[in-house]
Amino acid sequence: MNANKKFFSKMGFNYLAYSIASILFLIILSNIIAVIRPEILNNINIATIITAICNYVLPLPILLFLMRKLDSTEIKKNNLGFKTFLKYLCITFTLMWIGNITGTIITNLLSFTIQNDIANPIQNLINSTDLWLNLILISLIGPIFEEIIFRKILIDRTIKYGPLASILVSAIIFGLIHGNLNQFCYTVLVGGFFAYVYIKTGQIKYSIGLHIILNMLGSVLSMIVNNSAVNLSNAFNTTDLAILVFYFILILIALFVGIYTLVEYIQKKRKQKNSIDLKIIKPVFLNAGMICFIVFYIIRMALQILS
User: Which of 66, 101, 104, 275 could staple 14 via S-S, CB 3.0–4.6 A?
Assistant: First the structure.
């Protein structure tokens, strides 16, 4: 048990170091640019690219260096059929909606309690940046890096402790590292499911594919739909109406299939009566490294809420 706690403590400290490194890189790079070309930082698109570089590219070698001493295990590879992939996509979309609704309720209650609006950073980012940046950065580059960092690197080293431990650690770290309450609820659910998909298939391409499509729906498609809604409110246009109808039908189908598949899966698991070893949860999270990581991000979320 002590060995397990030590392992997950290292895991927590490693991802804490990764997080702190990304913040330091952003501070250093921003200050350098502020001296050389300060006007660049006023461009939201360039500022977003700089942030992405500091979040993904620069700190990744540090994480790989820290994780090198933790043994990895190769997961057995299985292929997903196209039909199954579509079902998984619907589940992903459903979990995102459940998480979004939960997060919205919580943030609204907190906003009412503290008498202050809680900003949604990712929504502000999507609305402020250009469509091409949403497509390239949020919908393509971001998901690839995140699946490698929070699924591939992490799960390959934790899977020896069982699927439950890997899924929980991946989900919690992925949820917290976004640094705000608005995203936490749905990223925990979606991150946990992506972890399940990677463990089931042993191929990161499937979770990357799901992540890319989900982000594309939430950023690029949502921008197109919002623009169509605005245009339609000003003047009737058959193209904008068709876009809204298509989006509405797409949501209904995805939610129906996603909820049906989730209920079917839960019922199947109940019939199997597989026992889950909950004892692993204690050494996974009750250790110095994971506690420091969780506290660090709880403080960041609290500061974001209060600001």
Answer: 66
